[in-house]
């Protein structure tokens, strides 16, 4: 009885191994029908083209929304011809109306102007953060991949250590110690988000340096520096650019969270996080519009960027999704 | 002791040994950041009284707090304090740091575990149904909602929840641990816990749902599932007993790696709901540049992250004999 049990328990594995062997043999000659069902393939009967169409419409929708928001962020404060910092105590917490389409906040500032000015600030700060952290990560990853050996192991341990601290917490500590400057916010976000890029660039460099064109360059007498500059760095540019775009919504998110907590951008700058943070008390008084419209702007821009980034990611690197850990 | 138990024991030991330098480096990093900061802790210590204090007083206080010593001297003093159980005194709370942590940590653990339970429960149910009926209306709704939710920060969710459920419908209290002036009781805390825990849970759900859906779709295509179908087992048994357990293994690992996001979510949710937990203390300490508190909390949060990933790895190693425990 005991023998039978062990036999039935072990058989599936044995069967599986032998079948895999058989498949491999078949696979050499004719392309066998794959035994797995692709997770990406829609259910039977759905044409594959529809998935591609969806991806394209996501791109169009995302790009359209982003362009519209960016144009509005530039044009609304300019066309309005008004100051988003203008305080008017005769018009405090007015609900949306023709004069103030998004209403006014607790200081009587117009939320339409303030929201779009804030969006402009948030997007600029996020773009700076994304670029800085990508550069930092690319530098770190390239150094790690090129040097190899113990410097590589040391640098990767640094990456592990930075990753072990929750990002927002490390950001809060940095901002707390260097309060009230835009630079501190950018630094706090950039210093916590370069690790994903560093990992990707390192693995890319590790695989690139085994390729024949690098061997050819080295046997042609190129120095290590020249190989890095002419052959390796240009090849990681697409990766780095993709990482920048993927980091963008995350950086907006992060900046907004810091400002919301009162630790981010200085209060006179109208960032979305500052508006939401100031609007928290107003929500309790029933002024829902103070939070609603800026939050909608924030979510719309995040979704727009995410749509573009997802399309680009699926197109360029279908397997890279998990590595940035976003 | 079976070889497998020993292997897992070794994994735990190795991770604990690795955790010591990581925590030390984090502490050193925080001290270096503080040393390079333009902020002078004496101002924080005195508050507005700094303008009336004499130079001699300030110098004496500096001497007493050891602010003029080098970074590494201060770090060494702090570390030896930590090893003897003294985390220093929080300047924002005017209490020993250890006492603040001891008072607030249980509330955070309560909130985070309730939030995690909500997130895992929602994700399991929604993810399984979505993968089961792939391409159906429910699947498309869940996937779209999941992607959309990734763009909504937890504090926006929290404000919406307050506006709708606390102010609009008046079902639940707005914030705090108990009603103003009410004594601490189970019913009070439970009522006040619902909204923050739901917000924290829902804000963590999108990644989990999409992950479960993806890995269950992968599992449904595996051999043993095809085998179960071929043996004529009911669809319910096939999905719940054969495919789901395989799909859950990577999910456990994912849960372990999401501790940082949980901490981040807790910071935001506790602040909005004035929940008297440790994450809210982070913000209070940061606003007051309370360095002893910030240093202790950074190390504590890092330890939580390391413990979370260790627990996840141990759980996977116990559940799945194929996993080699050498990480």
Can you offer a commentary on this structure?
The complex is a heterodimer of chains A (326) and B (327). With 326 residues, chain A is mainly α. Chain A folds into two domains: 39 residues, no CATH class; 265 residues, MetI-like (MetI-like fold, Orthogonal Bundle). The radius of gyration of chain A is 26 Å and the shape is elongated. The N terminus and C terminus of chain A are likely disordered. In chain B, helix 1 crosses helix 4, helix 7 packs across helix 8 and helix 8 runs antiparallel to helix 11. Chain B contains 13 helices and two strands. Chain B has 327 residues and is mainly α. Chain B has a two-stranded antiparallel ribbon with strand order 1-2. The radius of gyration of chain B is 24 Å and the shape is globular. Chain B is 76% helix and 1% strand. The chains are: A mainly alpha (326), B mainly alpha (327). Chains A and B meet through helix 4, helix 5, helix 8, helix 9 and helix 10 of A and helix 1, helix 6, helix 7, helix 8 and helix 9 of B.
